[in-house]
Write a structure and sequence with these properties.
The chain is of the alpha+beta class. It contains 13 helices and 29 strands. The strands form 7 sheets. Strands 3-4-8-5-9-10-13-14-15-16 form a 10-stranded mixed sheet, with helices on both faces. Strands 17, 18, 19, 22, 25, 28 and 29 form a 7-stranded antiparallel sheet that branches. The chain has a 4-stranded antiparallel sheet with strand order 20-27-23-24, with no helix packed on it. A hairpin with a 2-residue loop joins β11 and β12. It is globular. The relative contact order is 0.11.
């Protein structure tokens, strides 16, 4: 069959299709015009597009009804310098809700050393399109909240949001030291300033993770009148043992990475190549008046560290060299900062005092645990959140040590340090429902609505403790640890066995492999340096080949462990000292060894003292866990001399994990965590792996030397 249309131009033969040149050219023309039209439509869409619609994937346990119908993008942004009483200028972004423009509103204050907002100087056109599609912003300025949903939701819910750079950071002037008491005074001044603005109703709440969590506790301990509630996340209880020397062993890799990151951030460096990229803070003022903000940032040098603050007279993109640029001079002030590495180096023992500028400081001046008594007395409402895989496990102590009638809520999820999300691999492994960021945001808005707006929304009826149990899901409790928790003991036995039977006497030899490292993927991530979301599970299958292991028989029933496991290991050695690293793992039916928890202790710290000593007996610290003082006078220089057998009893990081029927529970013991923690200076005097002395640990069992693990079991 042949169909002919405009015979002189083209013909179709259904049995053998032929397309003439004229048709081909028309086809290309139509296709090209259509393509151009689609591009134009797409561009116009993006031009007027304010970003993706925000839908909170919360799951039933965290749903808050008002957020189901919220109209987003209802705010405007302002920038300004706020003058403190000593002349320091604090850079602040102020987001004011437009839906309540004529009303005075409560404020959420976020005080950060990590840049309140950032500038991407070299966005390619395709990156701009991507930024617009995902954030609603072409760039180059991006607001620096951990989660864009947080800013949009809070501001569109009728809250002013003030995000400010601490002194010595971002675009603020001055200089600082890590966790300086001066920052506490600054935060109080900022809260007082906020409460006096014409858009403020006089009430303030705070939120933020890590360092931002510490500053909340510190400020709240001073009880400023306008501060009505706080919501700190993933912060610790003890600076020394959680941020510097876990188990009394210097945390090298974490400390090095954090110090570098904070230093570059504070100096407004540009480093896009790092795993955690660094970008300069947004300037506050367009000093040359050309409508551009990125050209207020001086040009970077060609040095190994991309800094502009080392220049005497900076050069700008317009080729002009000018000395009086505010942003440059403020950033140059930050060179006077004392970063964490110097503090960690000088703080050898918990009771050491260090000189910071003109002040002599002890841990009681900055450690979160010392702020708890004032918080307990003030009864300030607090929503505390943490992560089972975060290194700052002391968050459990902060909550558990509050009085039972304190208006406090506590949440733990399977998170690392940042960002506040369940990593994709773990989300799949646990079949995690919903998005944790959304769930936490929903609960936070309900929290703020209740305490700052006085809305009777049922927040006070929610169970105070929400724990995500791995392989089970969310559980609600009246307190932490849960009342129904009981400790069950498993003893070390011969043939690398763990059992409830303690009758076997003997010891096992383990030659320390100092190359053992608790790194789990190509990025060498672990609990201590997993600061970005990873798609890698923490698997110890191969790592345990460098350890001595003890394992249960195949479990005949599920076993839920919720809380801090406690190990007691009796050791002797052919050397005078040693470090002990212990890992709790779940061995699946296919032999895969999943990391669950860990703990470590230097043998020289084996002596236990009252755990309330860590806060100078100011209050009863809960949960009641082994404590080793870590004061200068408490260290045993040669704990294993003369074949001595010593007890090392310490807690592991908290968890909530269901060991499945058919699985096995495993304990792995190592004598080093290479590059993550310092090598024992007695065994490796120069810190060189090749020069470590041959060291054998004897793990004793039975009789009066019963090495064991005590598991907090929830029936």
């Amino acid at each position: 069959m042949i169909i002919k249309v405009e015979k002189e131009k083209y013909s179709f033969n259904l049995s053998k299709i032929k397309i003439t040149k004229t048709f081909y050219m028309k086809f290309l023309k139509i296709f090209f015009l259509g393509f151009i039209s689609l591009l134009l439509i797409g561009f116009l869409f993006l031009l007027f597009y304010s970003g993706p619609s925000i839908e909170l994937d919360t799951a039933d346990v965290f749903e808050y009804e008002p957020l189901k119908t919220i109209e987003l993008n209802q705010f405007e942004k302002k920038k300004k310098y706020i003058d403190l009483s000593d002349g320091t200028k604090i850079a602040a972004n102020i987001f004011l809700p437009t839906i309540s423009k004529s009303e005075k509103v409560p404020t959420i204050f976020i005080f950060t050393p990590y840049n309140r907002s950032i500038v991407l100087l070299d966005l390619a056109w395709w990156e701009k399109i991507g930024a617009k599609a995902f954030t609603g912003n072409w760039g180059p300025v991006f607001n620096g909240l951990p989660n864009r949903k947080t800013l949009n939701t809070l501001a569109s819910s009728g809250y002013a949001v003030v995000v400010a750079d601490m002194r010595g950071t971002g675009a603020s002037s001055g200089f600082t030291s890590a966790m300086s008491p001066q920052l506490i005074k600054d935060g109080i001044e900022m809260i007082n300033w906020i409460s006096q603005q014409n858009w403020s109703d006089g009430t303030v709440g705070m939120q933020g993770p890590s360092y931002l969590g510490w500053i909340q506790l510190a400020i709240a301990s001073e009880k400023p009148d306008a501060l009505k509630c706080i919501s700190p996340s993933i912060m610790g209880s003890d600076i020394y043992t959680e941020a510097q020397k876990q188990g009394g062993i210097l945390m090298i890799k974490w400390g090095k990475n954090f110090n570098r990151q904070l230093r570059l951030l504070n100096l407004n460096a540009l480093d896009r190549e790092n795993k955690m990229p660094v970008f300069p803070a947004e300037p506050v003022i367009d000093e040359d008046g050309d409508g551009e903000i990125k050209d207020e940032i001086p040009l970077y040098t060609d040095s190994a560290e991309p800094l502009f603050v080392t220049a005497e007279v900076p050069t700008y993109a317009d080729g002009v060299r000018r000395e009086k640029n505010i942003y440059f001079n403020h950033s140059k002030d930050h060179l006077k900062n004392i970063w964490t590495a110097a503090i960690a180096r000088d703080w050898m023992y918990r009771d050491d005092k260090i000189v910071v500028y003109d002040d002599t400081l002890g841990l009681e001046d900055i450690t979160p645990g010392f702020f708890v008594p004032a918080i307990k007395k003030s009864k300030i409402p607090i929503l505390i959140t943490g992560g089972w895989f975060d290194g700052f496990e002391g968050v459990t102590k902060v909550y558990a040590s509050l009085e039972k009638d304190h208006p406090a809520h506590f949440i733990m999820a399977p998170l690392f340090h940042v960002p506040m999300t369940v990593p994709p691999a773990y989300k799949e492994l646990f079949d995690y429902q919903g998005e944790y960021e959304d769930q936490l945001l929903s609960l936070r808005v309900q929290f703020f609505d209740f305490y700052l707006k006085g809305i009777e929304n049922g927040y006070d009826k929610i169970d105070p403790v929400q724990l995500y149990t791995c392989f089970k899901g969310w559980e609600s409790f009246d307190n932490y640890p849960p009342k129904s928790t009981t400790y069950e003991t498993l003893f070390f036995k011969g043939e690398n066995h763990l059992s409830i039977d303690s009758s076997e006497i003997g010891f096992d030899e383990y030659k320390i492999d100092f190359s053992h490292a608790s790194n789990y993927d190509a990025e060498n991530d672990n609990r201590w340096n997993m600061a970005t979301t990873t798609d890698s599970l923490m698997i110890r299958t191969q790592l345990d080949e460098k350890c001595i292991v003890y394992e249960t028989s195949i479990l005949e029933n599920k076993l839920q462990v919720t809380g801090h496991p406690i190990v007691e290991i009796f050791i002797s050695s052919n050397q005078n000292d040693s470090d002990v690293f212990v890992y709790l793992s779940d061995v699946a039916e296919d032999g895969t060894v999943y990391y669950v928890s860990e703990g470590q202790l230097r043998a020289g710290w084996h002596r236990q003292v009252d755990d309330d000593e860590q806060v100078n007996y100011l209050y009863d610290i809960k949960p009641d866990l082994p404590w080793h003082g870590f004061d200068r006078g408490g260290y045993d220089n040669h704990p294993l001399a003369g074949n001595a057998v010593i007890s090392m009893r310490f807690d592991l990081t908290p968890t909530s994990w269901v060991f499945q029927k058919g699985h096995k529970l495993r304990i792995s013991i190592a004598g080093a965590d290479f590059e993550n923690f310092e090598l024992n200076p007695t065994l490796c005097p120069d810190g060189n792996l090749k020069n470590c002395q041959s060291t054998v640990l004897n793990i004793h069992r039975g009789n009066t030397q019963m090495s064991k693990i005590e598991l907090p079991v929830l029936k």
